[in-house]
Amino acid sequence: MHRCYAPHFPCSPGSSFLIEGEEAHHALRVMRLRSGDKCEVFDGAGHSAVVTVLGGSGSTLQLGETEPLPPLPPVAGITLALAIPKGSNMELIVQKAVEMGVSRIIPLISERTIVRLDAKEAAKKTEKWRRTVLEACKQCGVNKLPVLEEPQPFALFLKRTDLPALKVHGAISPTALPLREVLEGARAAGQRDCLILIGPEGDFSPAEYAAAEAAGCTPTSFGPIILRVETAVFLAVAAARYALD
What we know:
With about 240 residues, the protein is an alpha/beta fold. It is built from seven helices and 13 strands. Strands 6, 7, 8, 9, 10, 11, 12 and 13 form an eight-stranded parallel β-sheet that branches. Strands 1-3-4-5-2 form a five-stranded mixed β-sheet. The protein is elongated and about 60 Å long.
């Protein structure tokens, strides 16, 4: 069933409403929804419903006979913070991280981050990544839009006070604890939220390692194999989802 993003749809049964703009155009011109067809709408805040197409033209879609769906079961809150990788890898990471259930994504600029963005470029990239978030939510049935923040310096990120208490830092270090050990300990303690911190292609600098540990990030090993940035992200998110859900 086709899914549409409707941030202000009425949750009461039987309500009717309009969707306008790109969402309506896609539903009418690409998916070719017609009067009498059913589709699912979600508001990005966790609510969804099955609705009937009443009609539409151009970039306006009229929907009605709303049938609210029960909320999805709660999942662990995973915040992913990573140094922006080069090329198109960030878009792939955003897409797959959303599909795997992260609740927040924080792009970072570290000492060895290859990608450097001025304010205009950062805004443009952020908008593109947020479109990827929305498309991933539509595709995989996520009803609550993950937050995707604008790129920020690593040093400022470490000063934040709104991050989960459990901070898993993927570290190439002989003193790093095994990922399984860290997550099993968190599960035994009843922790449900975590931060996953991933460095750039050239890893964090020694000074950044020290700063991260001082900020409460636990150096954590993902195994003996050196992983690419995107592979490290997928492994860590999947492990956290399995352990903390």
